[in-house]
Design brief:
- With 168 residues, this protein is α+β, with helices and mostly antiparallel strands.
- It has one domain.
- Strands 2-1-4-3 form a four-stranded antiparallel sheet, covered by helices on one side.
- β3 and β4 form a beta hairpin.
- α4 packs across α6.
- The longest helix has 26 residues.
- It is globular.
- This is Immunity protein 15 of polymorphic toxin system.
- InterPro entries: Imm15.
C-alpha cells in the first residue's frame, strides 16, 4: 500500500528527474510533492512522528537518483556545474521538502556563508539524518532574512551533500 502511494506521488504530480536536469536560466525550486492530500494519504500509513524522516528519506533518494542520472546524461564539465540540495521552511505545518537545483552551481556559493544549523537544537533533523546514515555526509545550513512583504522573519534550511560544497 505504501509503495503504491509513493508511486502515485512520483508518477502523477511530483517533479521528475529529467526536469531537474533542465538548464534553467538561474535555478528552480520544485517541491518533492505538490499536494498535501498526497501526504495525508501517507499519514494513514506512517505515524506523524516518523513522517518527516520518511519524507526526508524520499528526498535524499530522489537526489541520489538525480545525481546518478546526471552523471550519465551530462558531460563532465556540465556535471561539475550541476548543483542540487534539499530546502525547506521549518515553520510550515508539515515538512515540505523542495529541491534547489541548477546547472549554474556558482549561484549557490553564498550558501557557505550561512551558519550551520545547530543540530543539538533540531533533534528531528539530526535523528533523521543519523537514521538514514548520512549525518556525516551532509551539512545543514540555515538562512534567515526579514521579508518586507509579509513583515516577518523567514527561515530556510538547506541540506547539502558535503561533496557538493566545492564551488571552485
Amino acid at each position: 500500500m505504501l509503495n503504491k502511494k509513493i508511486s502515485e506521488i512520483f508518477n502523477n504530480d511530483s517533479i521528475q528527474v529529467e526536469e531537474l536536469l533542465f538548464d534553467y536560466e538561474t535555478f528552480e525550486e520544485p517541491p518533492l510533492y505538490n499536494f498535501y492530500d498526497d501526504i495525508n494519504s501517507i499519514r494513514k500509513i506512517i505515524k506523524d512522528k516518523y513522517l518527516e524522516e520518511f519524507l526526508l528519506n524520499l528526498a535524499i533518494s530522489h537526489i541520489n537518483t538525480t545525481k546518478i542520472y546526471a552523471k550519465n546524461i551530462l558531460s563532465e564539465e556540465e556535471y561539475n556545474k550541476f548543483f542540487i540540495c534539499i530546502t525547506y521552511d521549518p515553520f510550515e505545518e508539515i515538512f515540505y521538502p523542495s529541491f534547489m537545483v541548477t546547472r549554474k552551481k556558482y549561484l549557490f556559493k553564498d550558501i557557505l556563508n550561512y551558519p550551520k544549523l545547530d543540530l543539538t537544537k533540531n533533534l528531528v533533523i539530526k535523528n533523521a539524518l543519523e537514521n538514514l546514515g548520512i549525518l556525516n555526509s551532509v551539512s545543514v545550513f540555515e538562512s534567515k532574512w526579514f521579508d518586507k512583504y509579509c513583515h516577518e522573519e523567514l527561515t530556510r534550511i538547506y541540506i547539502v551533500y558535503n561533496s557538493d560544497l566545492d564551488f571552485n
